[in-house]
Specification:
Chain lengths: 281, 281, 281
């Protein structure tokens, strides 16, 4: 599959890792062009069994992805809609799609991510941010609305309730260390180490079976949307549903041949063993 | 609207911020008087479209709000009740009301908050605590009961499951730094900085549209009580339901006139921009 | 009740605290023997009203509990199963039972806990880990499956979504400090302090009424599986259902006699008061 013809980013595929680099106008505005591009990208990735990891980064030294185009917001109908009639908004829809991709998705945040830009980051599986360069903000309350690209829904799933409310009600900038402490990002990293950190993580994940990556994602996302009894059933379901029988059995066989089990030396080195077992591919 | 005639606290309204200062007897006991006062306060705030932020603080240098009156607990019926018959307890009811206020609520914790006092803090949107002065504890398990002013229900929504269980099963004091690390409070602050921190935060929020504050709160609280698909719908619902059309469109128009979008200098200063846009009020 | 005859651990009962020490082969393999032992243990503990706290530790200086027996995984049917037909797996079942025990359960982690071993730790109420000795990993994605001993379901209940996904998708070792920062454990402790820390915590909890311990656990676990309205009802239900009337009323009476309420000196010392009130037992 080819990843070409986008207006707001370019895509580079290497060793099952697709790197998306936003580069659109002066500020990487999140408008019709970007939403259209993200929809096209998602449509391809949903059908792609080769790509295992997607990294979202920016060519702009100051901005990762900008907020949602305010011109589109000016035209928004504000007619009240009943609960049963309400439909998802365009930004919600495309970010929901991103969040459900079968690939592992990583937001590599080396500039501002505010409003819809930050909501996009929240729709990725993991977020890493560069100290001194990264800032995030949800400014919607100040503009007379609420974060409605999934931000109001996804924030407390990362941070707990009190910090989610402070972030969304205060409409202020948060830096990388505060973001780490509050839990909106996985880790704050030094600007000169984020590249290697994300690359190593992506390369590690990219060697694992694609079906397992997808099964893990499904089970984890489902787990917090249901009572534990149902979550456990989903976990078992995804085991039976998605396991690549050949891949798993090959791996357990190799593990056995290497005396992985019952051997304390091997138990000390699972971090390496995990990668050795991939050599069967 | 006037906020007068309370026995357990006094209320001061200034610039859309209502500051409630508990001052009742030697320990700010959480008894019939306080619960009655809180119900009256909630009834007014539910109808008040001017107040945007409520700060709860204490005049007592050592105690924020004391635990629930043990004399009321002695009389508690312990007859088993079936699931379908069970009704909310008085403290649960009033704190549920506090938690659903349309205003942003801040607990400014400069003394002890234990038992029902801490459960009250958990029912506020945000919590900030002074190092060296703040302690919290849920002592119910030691008394033969469980935290039943919402504490058992709200703890893991802030901290994750393991830490919630430790807090509730250990019945010990936690200081401000440990509270921050466990996530029961937003931040631990120095005793001489908590005043300014909370004041600045309150003044910032108090300039934003009241309807947006309410919409943000609703969407965030709902988000963790439902699967993501339903949460996203709630988010969209609150956008249509609550947006003050005039307020939002005015703000986006100003933002456009100021070239906020497409301009990197403006993008650098969203922290200030957010406040400039409020000057249209 | 006696706790004897296990193949994979020994059990020592002292002052209402049951200490389980794993000691099975070279690596504490989590195979048929251990699962069988854990089922027997759970069956007894479910009926035991004397034991109030269970500590799980290991006699192996390097391994707490090893991963699930890979030989059992090799035989796993990978036939797809429909959602309605899916049944819980053996490891899921026994860990679900552990997680619902009426006793407070503590994982004292002084060695590796990977795969099913870590999923076992996640099924305990609380987790404390020794710096330098503890490592955890979920390596399933690398083996072609997903964590299906409750790991995919329980991880985000401790850490938030982004960090749960990183843990499960990266299949790498995490040390004690990173585990604390990510929230999979309650606290990282020095190797020479973990013993006392866990002992003190266990002894504290073991003096509280058994029924209250159970009620607290039920209410907290239920709280995150339901909307807040239902969680609050569950909280009230457990108050009526489980309170030992005699225990609670005795305690509140003692508290009153000691002038606990209305007295600032007593309010300063709740940490001790909580224990004094237990002397009535």
């Amino acid at each position: 599959m080819t990843y070409e013809g986008y207006k707001t980013f370019n895509a580079k595929l290497e060793d099952s890792i697709l790197t998306i680099t936003f580069n659109f106008g002066s500020v990487n505005l999140q408008g019709l062009e970007m939403i259209s591009d993200l929809n096209s990208l998602a449509m391809r990735l949903e059908r792609d069994h080769e790509v295992k990891v997607v990294i979202f980064q920016s060519a702009n030294p100051e901005i990762w992805v900008c907020h949602y185009d305010t011109n589109l917001l000016k035209d928004l109908s504000t007619k009240a809609v009943s609960r049963s009639e309400v439909e998802l908004l365009d930004l919600q829809k495309v970010l929901d799609r991103i969040s459900k991709l079968p690939q592992a998705t990583i937001a590599k945040l080396e500039g501002f991510a505010r409003g819809g830009g930050h909501e996009f980051a929240l729709a990725c599986d993991m977020r890493f941010a560069a100290r001194g360069k990264y800032k995030f903000m949800q400014m919607e309350v100040a503009m007379g609305i609420l974060p409605c690209g999934g931000g109001a829904s996804r924030m407390a799933r990362q941070t707990g309730l009190g910090r989610a409310l402070e972030i969304i009600l205060s409409a202020r900038d948060f830096g990388a260390d505060e973001a780490e402490a509050y839990g909106t990002i996985n880790k704050a990293l030094e600007p000169d180490e984020i590249d290697d950190y994300v690359k190593n993580l992506a390369q590690r994940i990219a060697r694992f079976p694609a079906e397992s990556i997808n099964a893990c994602k499904r089970a984890v996302y489902e787990s917090i949307d249901q009572p534990i009894e149902e979550a456990l059933k989903a976990e078992a379901y995804w085991l039976y549903q998605s396991t690549s029988k050949t891949a798993a059995i090959k791996r357990f066989t190799i593990a056995d041949e290497q005396g992985l089990q019952h051997d304390i030396d091997n138990q000390r080195n699972w971090d390496d063993l995990v990668m050795k077992v991939q050599d069967i591919n």
